[in-house]
Amino acid sequence: MDMKKFLIDLERLVNIDCGSNVPKGVQEVTEIFKKELEKDWIVEVYPQNDGKNPVLVAKNRDSEDVDLMFLGHNDTVFPRGTVPTWSYKLEGNIATGAGVYDMKSGVLSMVEVAKEFKDEDITIALVMNTDEEISSIHSRPIIEKIGAKAKYAMIFEPARKNGNAVIERKGLVKYQVEFFGKASHAGNYPQEGVNAIVEAAHWVGEISKLHNWDIKNSLNVGLIEGGSGVNIVPDYACFKFEGRSHQVEFFETIRETMKKLQENPKVEGIKVKIKEIGYRPPLVLNNKSALLRDLFDESKKEIGIRYDWEVAGGCSDGNFLGILGVGVVDAVGPVGGEAHSKNEYLDISTVEERINLAKSVVRKMIDRKII
Fold this sequence. Notes:
By secondary structure, the protein is of the alpha+beta class. The chain has helices at about 5-15, 25-35, 100-115, 140-145, 195-210, 250-265, 285-305, 320, 350-365, and strands at about 40-45, 55-60, 65-75, 90, 95, 125-130, 150-155, 165-170, 170-180, 185, 220-225, 230-235, 235-245, 270-280, 310, 325-330, 335, 345.
């Protein structure tokens, strides 16, 4: 591969301010890949979220059935204005900058791998979204539509800091819960008020009991707000929380708990509004995923790469695919670390070896007629 070109492209992409909520940036990155791929691929861009979070889909031939799906995201977690104060930098084998590891290097890698097999008698679909860091709330239908027709998928999220890839991930659900009460003077007419914060506090205590790390079920209330003064009975409160588990039953337990709390309020007269603001099902090991994992193990031994497989607490878009019966391996991109922070880095010495590893696996899949 042309490593010099790879690094030039990487610098160009990293130096675009393209957080999930920066439409101009994610549109620019999407357009760059569109122009490159449409020369030889069938490219379609879906204008999700009124064009603010486009999704690019590229196929090597016109077919709904997909043998191999490559998935990556072009957005970063960073807010608008990050790049001007933190641009791409390369020192030795370490590259830094917003999204250099998570996951501009991974998207470039998957394009490099896909091009190798463009003319093979298989159907490859490249999918690049721009809202992964906000739970893929706009791109999920497209990912699932293509995934429903796919046999296997490689998720080019970055490898872990220790070089490991991911074979299973927890599922995730996020909720916003709002409470509407009635304001009144806390000293003169407290009995006329309906305290939204008291009800919210009751809910927080009850749903937090579902957290059970002994069985790796986590529940975290991360944001809460309400009230306008200590002398006013608050008429509004809101909190947001997430739950993570390998078991879909845990998410049903969360829903049932909230339903019971809503039907049996602690504060008389309170009104509650529940909104799901994010969901990814668990990525669990199926037979096809196990086969794909074994092919990676075989190839990495041949190439001389050493790493293990992890079960991750974090999610990716691969979560949407496993539940559809797709064979999925995740975190097959290059190695680095400190994602979602200004200490993020990429070890460029691992780029070519991880690309060659993925190519080796695809070649085995074709030669052995797995796809």
